[in-house]
Amino acid sequence: MLIILTVFAAVTAGLLITYGFLAFKKGERKGYMLSGAFFLCGLIYVLLAIALFMPSHLIGALYSVGLGILGWVLYFLTLFVEEMCENPMSRTRLRLFQIIIIIDSAIYITNPFNGFAVKFDPLDFYGVTLCRAHFGPVFFIHGIICYMVLFYMLVLLAKRMMAFSVYYRARYVIGMLAVFAVIVSSALASKYTTSGITDMSLLFLVILLAAVFHLEYSFAPRSLRLRIHRFVSDNIADGVLIYDHKGRLISANRLADEIIEDDTAKKVNSVKDFLGWPETDQFFTQTIGTRLFSIVYKQIFDEKGIFVADIFIFHDITDVEMRIDREQKISRTDSLTHAFNRKGFFEAANEFLYENESEAGFALMICGILNFKSINSCYGSRVGDNALRTIERRFRDHHHSYPMLHGRTAEGKFALLVPFDYVDELASDMSYVRVPVDMDVSVRVDLYYGFVVLSDVTKPLDFYYERALMALNECKRRNAVGALEYSFEMEEKVLRQQELTAEMHNAIKDGQFFVELQPQIELETRKVVGAEALARWRHPRLGRIMPGEFIPLFEDNGFILNLDIHIWELAAKTLKQLSDEGAYDGPVSVNVSQVDIRDMDIISVFERIVEETGISKDKLHIEITESALADRRDLLIYTMEKLKESGFVLEIDDFGSGYSSLNALMHLPFDVVKLDMEFMKNSNLGGKNGIILNSISEMIHALGAEIIVEGVETETNVENMVRFGGDVAQGYYFSRPLSTEAFKEYVSNHR
Ligand code: C2E
Ligand code: MG
Ligand code: MG
């Protein structure tokens, strides 16, 4: 019997200490308090177990000390419950109980000396000497207090529990019942060890401990977990199938039911068969029905590496794929013409060549639209857009005749892959298109072409594109008809441009740029009334380079800003020097590029220059082409207005070349219009053209502006310009652009 009791006490102690340890591991304040309580309980059982082997008076002493310790356990618990309690009244009550418990437990701990609560005498228990307890009134008061506290706390806890879901409540009941079983047996045991009156507070105490422990720390019960799991798996966007080690279906969520047919889903092997026997950890995509799935197959193993389950996860990627497809298509298409854009063309070209290269040799053609910017600014972007659509449609019509591919690879450019036997045919078929401007008015849009033969299809298309572009630019420069084929010289030209680009910065520092002055002659008096400053580059190796070569280059790479400021300064200094010497006192005109207006504050630059050189503002004439900044009209108008307000003289350069617009004259402030001789040359000046020219010049004069005619080369030119009201002439007939020295001499001869 003694052995049984010892083992029982030891096991109970072990259980409580384990609980204490678990609670301790939780780590928080509550955990520590609970673990303290569990350890103390465990200690009591240890004491009881030891006491069984001791003389009876010591058993009694230990018993009462144990009860004292129990008081402390109770104290811990009240602290714990107090923390959980939200009602301030209940908290106050608990604090009151705490004070009473402290006094009560002090009486018990000192009981071996004072015997207030209980006295003992020896008792023979089946040959084991135990002791019989005689309880005094303090013991009963203690009992009542303990039960009151315990019941009160149970009520508080029960209230807390009621606030939780039924799942959690069920869990507490199970936990409490389990511990209850242990306690009842231990209480019965203790009944036999003492007189038969047992302090039942121990029983309640441990029940309470266990309840608290479960309330705070137990895991969710299985049914709750399963229910939550089911909810989650039914609501995720993936289908999930799980099979056990024998290949039997354990779980299939709602989506998996929809994806895989019931019969197939039943056995793992039929699913594997359906999916083409995937390997474990394999990711793959497969179309099932009308949808596309990204599928993961995984075998699950336990910690020892023994196979336990098969899992399939089906992720529906149909919409994503469709969106990617759509986006890709959008990213490859030009939204205006619905042809390929640059990216799309390059991607499609590789495929196209792969499929067609055996049938024919191909050429890469680039089609440019002549004066596309001017078309946009003169007729509006609606007409420009229409032109692009028309061209695209016409190219598309050619697809019936031979294998070809086309796309819009830049603002006003189309790229085409065409069998090279058809290059000329296509270029002449499509030398221009007509685009309606109004109900019954249409505009002719001229096209020009550069092409290169794809002699080596292993070379990237970029390589050929660059070359076709060179041919295209050359075609434009030469005003060539039809398609111009790329030649090595074009590449040399590009190389030369690269060389110029590399050296341009040093060229300014080294003073390689200079200006020539071209005299402007007043027809009436035949005197020099002005001069245009034209930029020149004296290159140490390449010799004299004309602006026609470097200005467009610098406009592209942005260096024009540096060059123009430099040239304007040179022009102003030259003028100052000439007037100081008394050689020339007229104005000088400088050229402004549209890039200057767009990218810098030319107003303050000019103001600084006149201030630094000390020339007067009206001596500096500023030439701006009217077609400049077609798309930033407001900026152009603003800049010109400010310059004029500031006192500079404004000249509209190259009026009449290309697509000039009267519209520009209407909105821009100006003092001089420079008419291009070309304007008067190539047409029949007797008829309609003559009338128009006369009206324009009358109009300009009526606006109070002067007309300078540029490019006057012959006597006939002079006659013509007199006829059409030109005031001043500039051209080779009078003089080529001259060095400063030569200009001085020219002026002195034409005073
Ligand atoms: P532009 O402003 O229209 O200048 C007139 C151009 O016509 C000059 O060419 C001039 O040499 C040329 N020219 C003069 N008389 C005749 C003639 O009778 N017949 C022919 N066929 N041409 C004549 P240049 O000097 O080659 O300049 C070309 C263009 O380069 C200029 O055209 C101007 O737009 C630009 N440019 C020149 N210097 C500068 C500059 O410093 N800055 C900027 N941004 N552009 C400049
Ligand atoms: Mg000019
Ligand atoms: Mg000009």
Q: Please tell me the total number of domains.
A: 4
* Shape category: elongated
| End-to-end separation | 146 Å
CATH topology of the largest domain: TIM Barrel
Q: Calculate Rg over CA atoms.
A: 51 Å
CATH class of the largest domain: Alpha Beta
Under the CATH scheme, the architecture of the largest domain is Alpha-Beta Barrel
Helix content: 55-70%
Spans of at least 5 consecutive residues with low confidence: none
User: What is the number of beta strands?
Assistant: 22
List ligands, each type once. ligand C2E, magnesium ion
Query: How is the biggest beta sheet arranged?
Result: 8 strands, mixed, barrel
Structural class: alpha/beta
Proportion of strand residues: 15-25%
Query: Counting H and I runs of at least 4 residues, what is the number of helices?
Result: 29
CATH level-four homologous superfamily name of the largest domain: EAL domain
| Average pLDDT, all residues | 84
Query: How do the strands of the widest beta sheet line up side by side?
Result: 14-15-17-18-19-20-21-22
